[in-house]
Write a structure and sequence with these properties.
α3 crosses α5 (about 135-145) and α4 runs antiparallel to α5 (about 135-145). About 35% of the residues lie in helices and about 30% in strands. The protein has two domains: about 5-220, P-loop containing nucleotide triphosphate hydrolases (Rossmann fold); about 225-280, no CATH class. It has helices at about 45-50, 75-80, 95-105, 110-120, 135-145, 165-180, 190-200, 215-220, 260-265, 280-295; strands spanning about 5-15, 20-30, 35-40, 60-65, 70, 80-85, 155, 185-190, 200-205, 210-215, 225-230, 240-245, 250-255, 270-275. The protein has ten helices and 14 strands. With about 300 residues, the chain is an alpha/beta fold. A six-stranded mixed beta sheet has the order 6-7-8-3-9-10, sandwiched between helices. β1 (about 5-15) and β2 form a beta hairpin. The chain starts with 5 loop residues before the first strand and ends with a helix. The protein binds adenosine-5'-triphosphate. Adenosine-5'-triphosphate (ATP) binds near residues 21, 43, 44, 46 and 47. Adenosine-5'-triphosphate binds near residues 19, 21, 39, 45 and 46.
């Protein structure tokens, strides 16, 4: 019995001497867990996923999926894993239905009832030709193909890119149901808000290196906000306010403290305009790096 469904040990991939993919990435995904893998463009998310599926060879290090070695046991792994690639380049004149059945048959037996359910949830027209579909519809095909054989592990590389918000919502409902069934899910994304919705833990990757692994609970506790204020009064700058910028009566900063305290402080001055928004991923990374420096 393996206690990690997915285990990476110092997994490293260089495309050539100069081009780094990922460096020394070690992490474990537990059975039944949804693990978010987030990072900006070029961080190494697709490299990690493609290495796990043996679409590219690791330069060094190792990894196991359900106790199977990613290099030696590729075929056995493919039967356990549903994979959604970030890019979907399907072509040909097969209908969607035929294509899903054909493509998923390599991974296992298709559950027709589940296929009908997924197709309906995602509003996918199964009688259309695969080559006539938009990118978003091809992405839906990739989702259904990955799920219809009911794999016990899902490896998803930016699965929501190209999906409209309504369909994204349906997709999260599908993943919620998968989680209830005990499926283990590795979910890569550059959007922290979306992984927050469903993930138990997140790993943050930047410039090929895993920067941190945190529970969503801890991220939410430590999460900063971007605040913009327009005022003619003087705002007292506290140590919870970082990256403070003043411009034409506007003050903007990242706030790392209790929102309640901030609102109390702001209510003491005359405010013409106020916005409190999610910081960008880069700003969150900076926050994490600051924590790194302290520890
Ligand atoms: N085929 C390749 N040859 C050379 N370098 C590559 C290749 N594929 C990726 N890289 C490099 O590896 C690094 C990681 O890229 P990767 O595609 O894994 O990032 P990512 O986090 O998935 O980004 P994105 O969100 O843009 O897809 C980048 O610096 C990229 O330039």
């Amino acid at each position: 019995m393996w206690d990690a469904m997915i285990k990476l040990e110092q997994l490293t991939k260089y495309y050539n001497k100069k081009s780094r993919g990922i460096i020394d990435v070690s992490l474990e995904v537990h059975p039944g867990e949804i693990f978010g893998f987030i990072g900006p463009n070029g961080a190494g998310k697709s490299t990690t996923v493609r290495t796990l599926l043996n679409l590219i060879y690791p330069t060094s290090g190792s990894a196991q999926v359900d106790g199977l070695d990613i290099v030696k046991d590729t075929i056995a792994i493919r039967k356990q894993v549903g994979y959604i690639p970030s890019e979907v380049n399907f072509y040909g004149d097969m209908t969607v239905k035929k294509f899903i059945k054909y493509a998923s048959s390599f991974n296992g037996e298709v559950d027709e009832g589940y296929m009908d359910h997924l197709v309906e949830m995602l509003s996918l027209d199964v009688d259309r030709k695969i080559e006539d579909l938009s990118f978003g519809n091809k992405k839906k095909v990739a989702i259904v193909t990955a799920l219809v054989t009911k794999p016990k592990i899902l490896i998803l590389d930016e699965p929501t890119s190209g999906l409209d918000p309504l369909i994204q919502n349906k997709f999260f409902q599908i993943l919620d149901a998968e989680k209830k069934k005990g499926t283990t899910i590795f979910f890569s994304s550059h959007n922290l808000s979306e992984v927050e919705r469903i993930c138990d833990r997140v790993g943050i990757i930047r410039e090929g290196k895993l920067v941190r692994v945190e529970t969503i609970e801890d991220i939410l506790k430590s999460k900063s906000k971007r605040v913009k204020i327009k005022t003619k009064d003087t705002l007292k700058i506290t140590e919870q306010m970082i990256q403070v910028e003043h411009q034409n009566g506007n003050i903007s900063f990242i706030f790392n403290g209790s929102i309640d305290e901030l609102l109390k402080q702001l209510s003491a001055i005359n405010i013409e305009d106020l916005s409190i928004t999610e910081p960008t991923l880069e700003e969150i990374f900076m926050h994490f790096y600051e924590k790194e420096d302290i520890s």
